[in-house]
Amino acid sequence: MSDPSKPKDEKEQEPRSPDLRFVALSKIKPLPGTYVKDEPRKDYSGLIADIKKNGLQKPVILRKSEKEDEFQLVDGFHRCKALEQAGMLEVRADVYEMSLAQASEYRKGHRDKPLMPVPGKLVPYPPEEPAKADKAPEAPAVGDEELPENLKIPLTKEGQPETVTTMKVANIRPFEGHPFAVRDNKDMWDLVDSIKKFGVLEPVMVIPHKDGGYEMVSGHRRMRACQLAGIENIPVIVRNLDRDEAIISMVDSNLKREEISPMEKARAYQMKTDAMKRKMGRRTKEEIAQDEALGIKRMNADEELAQQMGESPATIQRYKTLNKLVPELQDLVDEGKIPVNTGADIAQMKPKEQKVLADAIQKEAKVPSGTKAKELKKESQAGSLTTEKIVQAVAPTKREEMPPLKVTMLEEDLRPFFPDKRTTIPDVKQGILEGLKLRQTVMERQKAKAAAGKTVKKAETPTR
C-alpha cells in the first residue's frame, strides 16, 4: 500500500537486488589515454526522468583499475552525468578485468557495433569472502546527550544496498570546512514546508566523526530545514569513508545546486583537487615509464575535474586562484562587482597591495577594468607596483568627471520658435546652437562690462 504522505508523482522504489553491483560515481575515473568525444549535455532532464521512471536499464561498463577501489569508465558517460545531475551517488555497473588496449578498442568500436562483445573477464559480484560475523558499531555520542545503548547504526559497505536508519539531528555536525553557505532564504523555507508535509524523502549521508557523533557529508540544507521545522530525527545513510573520499563526495553532491556563488565554487574546486591529488599520490618512475611506453597521457587533478565539470582546466585554475583574494575582495566577487577573470588577476597581487586596492575601491565606488587588473598583476610581479598606481587604477577618468550631456526636448516646446512646417531636425539643431552661441556672447559681454565697472570704481576710490 502506498504511503499517502508522499507526493503522488513519487515512484516507490523496490529493494535493490544484492546480486547487482553499484559503484560510487566518485570512484569512477576517465579511461587513461583517451578523451571523451561526447561533450556533457546542457540538459539531462529527459534521461533523468526516464531513469527515475524505469530505473537504469543498462549498467555502465567499467574497467577494474590497477589502483585498489578505483574504476575506469569504458561505456556510459551520459548515464553517469545524468545520475550526477539527479543527485545520485552510485551507478549500477558491470566491472571487467581487461587491458587498456582492449578497453580503448571496445570504447571506439561498440558505438558502430552495438552487439560487440565486451572483452576481458567479468569480475564476479558479490565477491566470495569467508563468512565472518560483522558487528555493527555503536553510534558514538555528541556532547552531553547520548544515544540509547541499543541503537545500532550500520555502516553501508561500498557497492551494497543502502542501509537507511534514523538519527537525531543533534548528533550530526556540519562537515568540517564546508565551503557552501546554507541560507535561510525563500528556497529554504519552501524546503521546510515540503519536509513538514512529506518528510525527508532522500536520506542524508554522514560519516562517523573522530571525536564522537557523526559528520554531515551530503544533506546540510535538509538538516537545517529539519532544525527550522522542529523535527528532531532525520533518515541517514552512514558511510565509512576516509577524509579525502568524504571531501570528494561532499563537493560533488553540493556542486549540483542551482545557485552557487563564485567563491563557493572556488573553495569547492580547491578542496576537491587537493583531495584528488592526495588520492592519486606521487607516481613512481616505473609507473611514468610504463605509461610512456604505452603512449598513455594521464590527466592531472585540474584536467580531471575540468572534464567532470564540463569546463576547461584554465577555468578551474582561475576559480582556485580566487582563494588568494583578501576577504574584502572575495565579497566583491560574490556580489558580482568584480568578474572572475579580473579577480583571478588581482589575486596574484600581494595581500598588502590587495588591501590598498580594496580601500581605493570603497572610496571611489569603482573597480578596475580587466585591462587595469592585468597591469596591476604585472607591476606586482615585477616589484614595481606603488600605492599611487593602485589608487590611479580606480580613479575616475576625465569622461567620468565630466559626463556627456544628453538633452531631450519635446516638439510642443520647440514649435513656437520654428513655426515653418518645413523645418527639419538639422535646422532645429542649428537654430538651438546659434541661440546658445548668442546667449554665450551676451553673457561674456555682461561679464566683461561688470569687470570693467569694478575696475573704474576701484580707481575712483580716494586713498586715505
Automatic annotation (TrEMBL):
One GO cellular component, as annotated: chromosome
Recorded name of the encoding gene: parB_1
Family affiliation: Belongs to the ParB family.
The name this protein goes by in its record: Probable chromosome-partitioning protein parB
Region of interest (Disordered), ranges: 1-20
One annotated GO biological process: chromosome segregation
Keyword vocabulary terms for this entry: Chromosome partition
Family matches, as Pfam families: HTH_ParB, ParB_N
Highest taxon in the source lineage: Bacteria
UniProt entry tagged with the keyword NAD: no
Bias (Basic and acidic residues): 1-19
Residues of the signal peptide: none
Domain ParB-like N-terminal: 21-108, 165-255
GO molecular function, one term: DNA binding
